[in-house]
Amino acid sequence: MNIFLKLGAALLLTSASALSTAGAASDADYTLVIHGGAGTILKKNMTDEKEAAYRAKMEEALRAGQKILSSGGSSLDAVIATIQVMEDSPLFNAGKGAVFTHEGRNEMDASIMDGRDLNAGAVAGVMRIKSPIALAREVMENSAHVMLTGKGAEEFAGTRGISLMDPSYFATEKRRKQLESAIAKEKGTVLDHDGDNKTSMYDDPIDPENKYGTVGAVALDKHGNIAAGTSTGGMTNKRWNRIGDAPIIGAGTYADNNSCGVSATGHGEYFIRASVAYAICAMMEFKGVSLKEAADAVVMKKLVKMGGSGGIVSLDKDGNIAMTFNSEGMYRGYIKGDSDPVTAIYKGEK
């Protein structure tokens, strides 16, 4: 099942510096990799307490997925459990703590894909769903469709026994201040995760005008199956029910047992236009290149040339990992087998 959307040209970003990191294959019988957003994440803007909070939450998310994978559970179950930890944390722009639209709403998007059969599900513009990634799976497994949006998606949730939250559940004061600042500065599209300094009103270590706080996970289970999922609140101050790449199969999420799984975070308009997630998997399948080579070609070359900023996490059928981004940093981490979680935030951090 394929969903590909073409959007018109977006605001051109300035060229960004880049880093690609890749993990070699190992004897681990399962692997899990995550991201919590990419952007201008600088050590000088990060307090020790805030850095510890981010690392602890990423480790918690990795442990949640590891618990499932270690017992022989499916990659789909692991991706859901991992992402839900981050959806429930106001540190990230997904679920609780999602950014505000221009109208003062929280509109969330998510998608998931099963690498066994290329089945996929997505939701967009939902405002009352506690776990958008879980609803995306319901769409995949219990509907005839791939993507549902807005009120229709929430109506479908009711048929699946999913209760709706009061919209106030998702709102946080930090995100509201970010919206107020964006409107005051008359910035049409302030992206969600970057801060001026340690005492920023945003209480965020990265500049909210240059951060993409989407969360995502890719898992390879003991049975050799790959799954990928992505969840986000989108852009601060977005208008007209804008939808980014996170719920679009092939742009923000893709998984295929024959090649790899990818979850993306970045300026969604560019990721849609470049079909980033699918392009990486397609290069592996049809050109025979490695995961790192494919990720570098798409994220470090094609996106940079277009003016797009952000990154991806991915893994292939052999458990190789690529965490590739052309921004100043990306919240990221992985586990291989029963080893301890590894997390990273800044550019140059292995």
Written account of the structure:
It is a single chain. With 350 residues, the protein is α+β, with helices and mostly antiparallel strands. It has one domain: (Glycosyl)asparaginase (Glutamine Phosphoribosylpyrophosphate, subunit 1, domain 1, 4-Layer Sandwich). Helices cover 29% and strands 25% of the residues. The chain is built from 8 helices and 14 strands. The strands form 2 sheets. Strands 2, 3, 4, 5, 6, 7, 8, 13 and 14 form a 9-stranded mixed sheet that branches. Strands 1-12-11-10-9 form a 5-stranded antiparallel sheet. Helix 3 links the parallel strand 4 and strand 5. The chain is globular and about 50 Å long.
What are the key terms here?
350 residues; alpha+beta; Glutamine Phosphoribosylpyrophosphate, subunit 1, domain 1; 9-stranded mixed beta sheet; 5-stranded antiparallel beta sheet; globular
